[in-house]
């Protein structure tokens, strides 16, 4: 059935009803109407420049795909704990051994372990979990200086975008445990604390394993940030600093039991 043209939309020069052209849900008016090709023509035409794959609308689809892949892969993940730590930790370093012990202890407590999937401490935690028969998960990120997922990841996915990856860390974990690490670990630590403080996530403990490394940060939070009124006592209590792996696992277990009781 033919539709009569709309004289207002097609030919009016009135500023209140400018000429327009539709590109799907997008409205093009004035000089933006002068497109020589259509969307499906550009899709089917393999010739010409490939700059379109780097445009923002195309990036939205990539972002959407990362969320779909992440949700699909992790939807049936059992209860899990995300562990952060430095990618620069050598295999002969005591922190590597600490990571292996933590991964093993979490697996034996019935938790899957989720890391950034990289080398160093992340590898150690994945290795300890895998050796203990647990589910070892790695959520990697596209970086110019990293070499992909470590060999002890049983279930893994690589992300282009940090924010999509961060969502997966929080959505599918019951707790965060931070071993000594750099900017990436600090970034995840404070994002987690912000989400808990603002009640975007609930019953979500944040454990800092290694008082010698984390003690100075905790003291600064207490003596400077808390004392100047920038956070409250309840906010500081969100952080649990310990040197004991069993203590860390018990904090995670208590939080999970509280979560189960609330659901």
Average pLDDT works out at 86
Strand order of the largest sheet: 6-5-4-3-7-8-9
Helix proportion: 40-55%
| Oligomeric category | single chain
Structural shape:
elongated
Low-confidence stretches: 1-13
Question: What is the N-to-C order of secondary-structure elements (H for helix, E for strand)?
Answer: HEEHHEHEHEEHEHEHHEH
- Alpha-beta content class: alpha/beta
Count of helical segments?
10
**Mind describing the biggest β-sheet?**
7 strands, parallel
Strand residue content: 5-15%
Q: Rg to the nearest angstrom?
A: 25 Å
Amino- and carboxy-terminal Cα gap: 55 Å
Fill in the keyword field for this structure.
15% strand; 263 residues; alpha/beta; 7-stranded parallel sheet; elongated; two-stranded antiparallel ribbon; 45% helix; single chain
Please explain how this structure is put together.
This protein is α/β, with parallel strands linked by helices and 263 residues long. The protein is built from ten helices and nine strands. The protein has helices at residues 7-11, 39-44, 56-74, 94-108, 121-131, 162-171, 183-197, 211-226, 233-236, 245-262; strands spanning 20-23, 26-29, 80-84, 112-115, 136-141, 155-159, 176-178, 206-209, 239-242. The strands form two sheets. It has a seven-stranded parallel sheet, sandwiched between helices. Strands 1-2 form a two-stranded antiparallel sheet. Helix 4 runs parallel beside helix 5.
């Amino acid at each position: 059935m033919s539709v009569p043209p709309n004289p207002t939309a097609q030919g009016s020069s009135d500023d209140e009803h400018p000429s327009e052209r539709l590109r799907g849900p997008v409205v093009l008016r004035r000089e933006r109407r002068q497109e020589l090709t259509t969307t499906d023509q550009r899709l089917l035409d393999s010739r010409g420049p490939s700059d379109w794959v780097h445009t923002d609308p195309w990036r939205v689809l990539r972002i959407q795909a990362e969320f779909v892949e992440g949700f699909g892969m992790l939807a049936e993940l059992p209860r899990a704990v995300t562990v952060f730590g430095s990618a620069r930790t050598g295999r002969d370093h005591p922190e590597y051994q600490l990571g292996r012990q933590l991964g093993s202890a979490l697996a034996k407590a019935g938790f899957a372990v989720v890391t950034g999937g990289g080398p160093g401490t992340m590898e150690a935690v994945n290795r300890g979990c895998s050796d203990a028969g647990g589910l070892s998960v790695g959520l990697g990120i596209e970086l110019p200086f990293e070499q992909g997922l470590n060999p002890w990841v049983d279930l893994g996915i690589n992300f282009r975008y940090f924010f999509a990856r961060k969502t997966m860390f929080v959505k599918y974990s019951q707790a965060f445990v931070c071993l000594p690490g750099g900017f990436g670990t600090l970034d995840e630590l404070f994002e987690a604390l912000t989400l808990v403080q603002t009640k975007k996530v609930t019953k979500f403990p944040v454990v800092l394993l290694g008082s010698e490394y984390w003690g100075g940060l905790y003291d600064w939070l207490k003596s400077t940030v808390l004392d100047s009124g920038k956070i409250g006592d309840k906010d500081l209590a969100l952080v649990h600093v310990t040197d004991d792996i069993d203590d860390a696992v018990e904090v995670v277990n208590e939080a999970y039991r509280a979560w189960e009781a609330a659901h």
